[in-house]
Model the fold of this input.
Amino acid sequence: MRAAVFLGALALVLGTGATAAPLPPILTVTTTLPFTVRGLHFRPNERVAVSVLHGRSSIHPVRASATGRFVTRFTGLRVGSCGLYLVRAVGSNGSRAAWLRPMRFACGAQPGPAL
Done:
């Protein structure tokens, strides 16, 4: 009987071990004037190199908050409404995320082959 009580108390203290997997890091471009990038789910206080490739490459070093978030602005970067660009973020503790803005059909992109 004592063993059952001990095992039950131990299970309560240690938990079941079924913890939720951490969410993967994500990037979003919140606005293009000024060009603003938001990162979520990075490791707490991680140093992150955020780069934008649009003709030339621009890099901003940032530090994620204690909750794994950051916002950075590329004030000198101008992207038109039809511009194609790639945003990447690489963290010092292994977090990685990328976001590619595809060209829209209205901007001259060719549709894929008809099936």
Notes: The first strand starts at residue 26 and ends at 32.
